[in-house]
Structure prediction request, 360 residues.
Amino acid sequence: MAGLPGLQLLPPEVELETKAVLKQLSRSHRYLAELKGYAGLLPNKDILVNAVTVNEAKDSSEIENIVTTHDQLYKAMAGTSQVDPAAREVVNYRRALWRGYQLVQEKRSLTINIFKEIHKIILENDSRIRRVPGTKIINQASGEVVHTPPEDYDEIVRLLDNLEKYINAAGEETDPLIKLAVIHYQFEAIHPFYDGNGRTGRIINVLYLILKELLDSPILYLSRYIIANKAEYYRLLQQVSEDNNWEAWIDYILKAVEVTARNTLKLARYINELVEEKAEELKRELANIYSRELIEVIFNEFYTRISDVQEGLEVTRKTASNYLSQLEEIGLMKSEQVGRQKIYINRELLKLVKANNRQL
Ligand SMILES: Nc1ncnc2c1ncn2[C@@H]1O[C@H](COP(=O)(O)OP(=O)(O)OP(=O)(O)O)[C@@H](O)[C@H]1O
Ligand SMILES: [Mg+2]
Prediction:
């Protein structure tokens, strides 16, 4: 590897806004803006955010070969004691995402400290920047080394500082979606941690969109697109390192944004329709217990605990339990014993989100 130039500081010294990139850029912006607008009008935004982040946590972890199912996931999310380890990792990923979102909103910046905090939650351990040499990125299929990230600690820190400045620069000229692609490459190429760089980097992506106000809530995730176009993802990252080929990489990320924005928009519409349809059904069939708050509680996650209804509606445990039993009788919810507690699954919501997760 001697003789090869190391990783360059940002910004890249080539023209990024090529014709091909600009063409794709306007499409990506259009659908992203549509998604932001639509999500902003939803009566309860948490419903969409929660549904989408479950799929993202699942997909992003799947890239790392942590495979779990929605059914294992809601059990883990409901906080039962015996949790399948893969599901636990996915739940950690989701927690990391929420924490990152909270921090970016609070600080209005996206810093190395935030990277570390996210990373720490994902891997459930301390998140020290690499000091021991020997980390290499290997092509899983061929076993060949595709990238050797910087090994010197000071060099890693210098590159991270540079990345942090690039992310938070005010009055920047370069389009934020182009910068998203640059940031993702650079973070992965620096590879600051021993492990978990992919997952941390994918969370940084959505946080950057929020920082730049391209979204108000964390609802756009590229992991599903990356799974569907995985070989290309790795190949294009490598091409930036080897040939300084930014154009193809940026184009890939921009397409990922477009496809994902369209897909998420579709899901948002379906969820909204489902919520309204079920609200009408409840009004008709269970007029005695119907309220908007009840609808919102049972759509907040795939599963609802008795205590969720109790707290959300400020009713007694007995009343809450009675409401859920009635919802089960009309077939909207299905109860399940998980560990010591009983949870109620929102069958239709689960079905919808599962189906959407298979698309793309
Ligand atoms: N040639 C390359 N140049 C730069 N980064 C790369 C290259 N090939 C892969 N990567 C990045 O390295 C990540 C994997 O790193 P690491 O194992 O630390 O993260 P992870 O979160 O554990 O894994 P994964 O991303 O597979 O879930 C990939 O997701 C990708 O973003
Ligand atoms: Mg890994």
